[in-house]
Specification:
Strand content: 15-25%
Structural class: alpha/beta
Low-confidence stretches: none
Helix content: 25-40%
Oligomer: single chain
Number of strands: 11
Bound molecules: S-adenosylmethionine
Length: about 250
């Protein structure tokens, strides 16, 4: 629950796959909760051994207890409680030439945010700045939508004022995505490092963030619609910006 997440600084991740990704990224749960019938075998036993060796708590519970704790939509036989992590704003002097950071202004939909975190991971971007009053990235719907990338992508929180001050020394392009942009996002020569700013689902990019962009790009649309979904617009733009760094493993 939101209040419990806020008061404790903890959050829940469900399912062995997510917990294994957490382990790969250096997270250790405060508590592991496993169904009593699976705790002694297979991957769940691996997880139990790992958590016990880190001196953390493991609870073997009945089906009834697990059903109370787990989400209703896709119940898993193991879940874990982790400490939330927010990173400090990266000092501008440490930003590498090929870096890409994404800034989201007041993102409201946890499903969108989770999808975006997953996409940032997929394109090898450096992290996400959550500007202003964003939804909680550690709520269940968002964590689930990240498919584990919540453990791999640095998340930074900033007020709009702090973001504008921090961004002042950004050495490359600050790219705003806007329905009234002058540039087609496919024909833009992005000057690296790139700081990409996306607006909120409702009002879009605020005036102050629009003004802070060094260029405003638009994704052309053919139909009668007003705009693309935020997560889709973010994915398209990130793939355009990061394209040259992404290769199939076969080298094509
Ligand atoms: C759902 S849209 C917000 C629409 C809002 N009514 C507006 O006027 O901007 C959320 C964000 O996705 C991005 N976006 C969506 N469609 C876009 C497009 N066709 N071109 C550029 N950015 C777009 C922008 O960053 C926008 O602020």
């Amino acid at each position: 629950m939101r209040k419990a997440r806020k008061d404790t600084g903890l959050f829940v991740a469900e399912g062995a796959s997510l917990i294994l990704t957490a382990r790969d990224n250096g997270f250790v749960p405060e508590t592991l909760v496993a169904h009593k019938d699976t705790a002694a075998s297979g991957v769940t036993k691996d997880l139990v051994d790992w958590v016990l060796s880190a001196d953390k708590e493991c609870l073997e519970v009945s089906q009834a207890v697990l059903e109370k704790l787990a989400s209703k939509d896709n119940p898993q036989s193991v879940l874990a409680v982790f400490r939330q992590r927010f990173a400090d704003p990266p000092p501008i002097a440490t930003i590498e030439k090929n870096a890409t950071w994404l800034a989201l202004e007041e993102v409201r939909d946890p499903g969108n945010l989770g999808t975006i975190i997953r996409t940032v991971d997929a394109v090898g971007a450096d992290g996400i700045i959550l500007i202003g009053n964003c939804c909680d990235p550690y709520q269940h719907e968002c964590v689930r939508a990240t498919m584990g990338s919540i453990f791999a992508v640095p998340l930074v929180r900033m007020t709009r004022e702090n973001f504008l001050a921090w961004r002042a020394d950004w050495p490359g392009d600050v790219v705003g995505t806007h329905l009234d942009g002058r540039e087609d996002f496919r024909h833009t020569n992005y000057k690296t490092p790139v700081l990409l700013i996306m607006g909120s689902e409702g009002p879009g990019l605020s005036d102050s963030l629009t003004r802070t962009a060094t260029r405003l790009v638009t994704i052309p649309m053919a139909g009668q619609l007003d705009s693309l979904n935020l997560a889709v617009a973010t994915a398209l733009t990130l793939y355009q910006i990061r394209g040259e760094h992404l290769k199939l493993s076969g080298g094509q």
